[in-house]
Amino acid sequence: LDNVMLDKEGHIKIADFGMCKENVFGDNKASTFCGTPDYIAPEILQGLRYTFSVDWWSFGVLLYEMLIGQSPFHGDDEDELFESIRVDTPHYPRWITKESKDILEKVGLRISTWVMAPLLFWKKLQKCASNCLLLCLTQKSASDYNNFDREFLSEKPKLSYSDKNLIESMDQSAFDGFSFINPKFEQIL
């Protein structure tokens, strides 16, 4: 979860794209066995070819963890965890709202049976209609750190520097169309 960040409105930002696959849509499918164990979709574990739906599975697992505070799948080692992902049905505590459970089931953990969920979810989210998620993720003030693990709040921040020559030598076309550049980063460039 250290590659997923929340802004002060509760919007999710992904901070690491270490392994990305392009053009996985339509009839194009991937077959690479990859991913963080807790978030690997059943299709990958079964060795099936897959589409971007595996990302929705991972997103569903992430939402479950954020709403419930633990992983939906468990095991003492990777083999047991993978078996749990393949065969177990997530447990929903009694205190979780019907709306939250509905989103979890539709967006992530049952995506193969409800294909339109991602499109509808994002349209609702853009209109801030999916309040059941945002209510528990938003900050009450700029200094509210309730959504952060206490362990990380005690760590001393480290400033890392970018090698300008290395950045210039790399193909940056993947970032075309991005409209935001941190003003501090612009000074480095």
From TrEMBL:
Keywords on record: ATP-binding, Kinase, Nucleotide-binding, Serine/threonine-protein kinase, Transferase
InterPro entries registered for this protein in UniProt: Kinase-like_dom_sf, Pkinase_C, Prot_kinase_dom
One function term, GO molecular function aspect: protein serine/threonine kinase activity
Domain Protein kinase, chain residue ranges per copy: 1-175
SUPFAM superfamilies reported in the protein's UniProt record: Protein kinase-like (PK-like)
Pfam families per UniProt: Pkinase, Pkinase_C
Coiled coil: none
Protein name (record): Protein kinase C delta type
Upper taxonomic lineage: Eukaryota, Metazoa, Chordata, Craniata, Vertebrata
